Amino acid sequence: MSSQKSEVKAYILIVTAMGKETEVVEFLRKIGGVKEANAVYGEYDVVAELENKDLQGLNKIIAEVRRNPSILRTVTLIVM
């Protein structure tokens, strides 16, 4: 039987307040568990990749992300 990776990965699509994209990216990059964060063009302003050993830990990271007052809306996509 092959071994399966145990980490839980997710992507968060973020809408920020106008002009706050860079500030939010810098904030996200300081959070443990955020593997990558980038400002993007389109419907969302920032995309972040998160990873943790389990779903409970991932939920804590997501809660920390959402506390930023410059973040107006998020969509979380958990990888299957």
Secondary structure: elements and pairs:
Elements: E1 8-16, H1 21-29, E2 34-39, E3 46-52, H2 55-66, E4 71-78
Antiparallel strand pairs: 1-3, 1-4, 2-3
Task: Please describe what this structure looks like.
With 80 residues, the protein is of the alpha+beta class. Helices cover 26% and strands 38% of the residues. The chain is built from 2 helices and 4 strands. The protein has helices at residues 21-29, 55-66; strands at 8-16, 34-39, 46-52, 71-78. It has a 4-stranded antiparallel β-sheet with strand order 2-3-1-4, with helices on one face.
As a whole number of angstroms, the C-alpha radius of gyration is: 13 Å
Got a strand count? 4
**Helix and strand element order:** EHEEHE
Structural class: alpha+beta
Average pLDDT level: 94
For the biggest sheet, the summary is: 4 strands, antiparallel
Strand order of the largest sheet: 2-3-1-4
Cα-to-Cα separation, first versus last residue: 19 Å
